[in-house]
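Whether sequence alone determines local backbone shape is best considered at the level of individual chains. When preparing material for the folding task, we compiled for one chain both its residues and its backbone structure tokens. No coordinates are needed to read the tokens, only the vocabulary itself. For completeness, the protein is quoted in full, as a sequence line and a line of structure tokens:
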Amino acid sequence: MKKDKNKNGSRNRLVGLLLLLIVFISVGFAYLSGSLDIVGTAKIKSNSWDVYFSSAGTATSGSVTPVNPATISNGNDKLITFTLNLDKPGEFYEFSPVIKNGGTINAKLKSFSITGAEGYEDILNYKVTYSDGTALAVGNTLQADSTKTLKVRVELKKDISADDLLTEDANLNLAFQVQYEQAN
């Protein structure tokens, strides 16, 4: 029986010690929490998103006079439309639009495309670069409050045969579009 009393007594002392420790930690935490003062100021800056074509540019070179030159689409400043009639292999139209990030957030190119030439992929090439000749690529960044000049070229392939040419005149109503997203 003595052994059981010693076990119970040791157990009671251990429980009492743990309760005392919990009370001590709680009081200490309450004291420290109650006397902790943090003083500071923060300023939140407003941000804006504004990526658009500021200019459709002019034809920089080309052997074709467009039916309708490149212009920023009415109501959509992320779309440039133009109409071409390409007759001979190697003929091309090239223009230099300017894309502007007028916002405060860096932008990353999500996608770009030329539409309206569906069905003519076998006879047309198109190429989009920056004005220095560097290829435009998804993931390229456009810093806040900056501009970049692009070069868009649409060409009737040089290596096509007479059988590949269209038998009737066809105006190509084309559109060049870019989509950006937040970079950070």
